[in-house]
Amino acid sequence: MSDIKNIGKALFNLQRFQILQTKLNPNTSHLLPNDYVYAWYEKLYPIVDENDLHEDLEPYFSITREQVDEITSYTDTEWLEKRYYTFYEYEDYYKCRIEPVKGISRHTLIAVFRYMFLRNAFDDKFWNTLLEPMKYPVEAGGITSDFKSEYLYLI
């Protein structure tokens, strides 16, 4: 690994630690929105926010800008046309279990949908359809749960 890549990764990890630490501190917790903190926690590129805090570190996010853009753009387009899908239907669309489109895995879908839920995106019908009983894996059940800072950990 090149020295520049090592420095970039170190800066990414330092920035991530600072963001999580700020959210965990009761005196500063209110300074950062839950969705932004969640994105950093999951190493998900926070595409909706324009901010130098993450734009300069784009190459170091595990869930890439391209993946987040693909999922949010497709989902938004379908939602605007009032086409609602279950989690398994999204998983099939992105071929998560066969040959993932753009490397989009089940975990990627869960993380992006959680991020969008925390941003108050979409409507109740969207979220109720996405998590229709028996049509999503158990690990996706937390997508629409309340955000709690105590669920964050630094190690």
Percent strand:
under 5%
Tell me the major beta sheet: none
**Low-confidence segments, ≥5 residues, pLDDT <50?**
none
Count the helices. How many?
7
Distance, first to last CA: 23 Å
Q: What would you call the quaternary organization?
A: single chain
* Structural shape: globular
Give the strand tally: 0
What is the helical fraction, as a range of percent? 40-55%
What does the radius of gyration come to?
16 Å
Overall SS class: mainly alpha
Output mean pLDDT: 93
H/E element sequence: HHHHHHH
Which short descriptors sum up this protein?
single chain; 155 residues; mainly alpha; 7 helices; 0% strand
Structural commentary:
The chain has 155 residues and is mostly helical. It has seven helices and no strands. The protein has helices at residues 3-24, 34-42, 52-55, 65-80, 87-93, 106-118, 124-130. α1 (3-24) runs antiparallel to α2 (34-42) and α4 packs across α6. The protein starts with a helix and ends in a 25-residue tail after the last helix. The mean pLDDT is 93.
